[in-house]
Write a structure and sequence with these properties.
The structure is a homodimer. By secondary structure, the first copy, chain A, is of the alpha+beta class. Chain A has helices spanning 13-23, 31-40, 47-59, 99-111, 128-132, and strands spanning 29-30, 63-68, 71-76, 83-87, 93-96, 115-126. In chain A, the strands form two sheets. Chain A has a three-stranded antiparallel beta sheet with strand order 1-3-2. In chain A, α1 (13-23) packs across α2 (31-40) and α1 crosses α3. The longest helix of chain A has 13 residues, at 47-59. Chain A is flat, with a radius of gyration of 17 Å. β6 (115-126) of chain A pairs antiparallel with β6 (115-126) of chain B, so a sheet runs across the interface. The first copy, chain A, binds a DNA duplex through α1 and α3. Chains A, B: This is Zinc uptake regulator, Fur family. Chains A, B: One of its GO terms (molecular function) is zinc ion binding.
Chain lengths: 134, 134
DNA sequence: CCGAGATTGACAATCGTTCTCAACAAGCCG
DNA sequence: CGGCTTGTTGAGAACGATTGTCAATCTCGG
């Protein structure tokens, strides 16, 4: 990979709309629902464009993506590396930093001779509120 | 959900074939490719059946499932809770136990009032051999 | 051995995502 | 400013993985 030969990215009304809509949500959202929100809000972006915009944002590190139930969910995120604690009922999300886990991952991987690491660490559960509703 | 009212599971030729084929693979495989292997091996299982069998195995804790590139991959696994270190080139997989990570997860989740936890911790990378080929 | 009911398999249906392609617009240069 | 080059858009078709349908079949308890 000759690395950073990032496709020249233009600023368009649609791209901004997606970025904004994504930032407005506290939770992880699917491309589909984001598209609906935008349409509901009067915007006329196409579904394909939303997919493309989200993929671009994720690629640029402006959004986190995670797979859940067969679909990909996105969420605006802080630029630093982190993981998530997600309520599987209401979707509330807490960003986690875990230097210890990073260290552990790097260590065990090294022990097995693995390089160029990448990892996913996501914790799902029920937040206090949702748990109380049971 | 009245919890553990596990659907009465019968032992059938197809189910056994799937279990066996899965156990024969060291790597994570998709339902589709497993189905092809079975057909290639002379078995006549239907694709839908392979999906159902794999879902059942995963539910019973006999197999691990992970999503990758839009499809779900399965792999026979040890019955104890563990995570994976996977070579993204050759698919080689190492099962990891990490009490420390479990503890960490439980702790941060508790700090935020989350309960009924579940988590995914997967490390992807290039194993020594594959890395050497570059 | 029998019968109830779980299981199967071929195929249709669904659902999220990507592709296609002509129309469009952002940034650039003169 | 006006035109040009090229990335971008949108509608719909195409796609691939997965799930549903339903009659035929097979398991297993009795």
């Amino acid at each position: 990979m000759t690395a950073d030969d990032i496709a020249p990215r233009r600023t368009t009304r649609q791209r901004e709309a997606v970025r904004e809509a994504l930032g407005a949500s506290e939770e992880f959202v699917s491309a589909q629902s984001l598209h609906q929100s935008l349409r509901a809000g009067g915007s006329t972006v196409g579904l394909a464009t939303v997919y493309r915009a989200l993929a671009a944002l994720a690629e640029d590190g402006e959004a986190d993506a995670l797979q859940s139930g067969g679909e990909v969910l996105y969420r605006a995120c802080t630029p630093t590396h982190h993981h998530h604690l997600i309520c599987r009922s209401c979707g509330r999300t807490v960003e986690l930093e875990a230097a210890a886990v990073e260290r552990w991952a790097g260590q065990v991987a090294a022990e097995h001779g693995f390089v160029e690491l990448e990892h996913t660490v996501d914790i799902f559960g029920l937040c206090g509120e949702c748990a109380a509703e049971r």
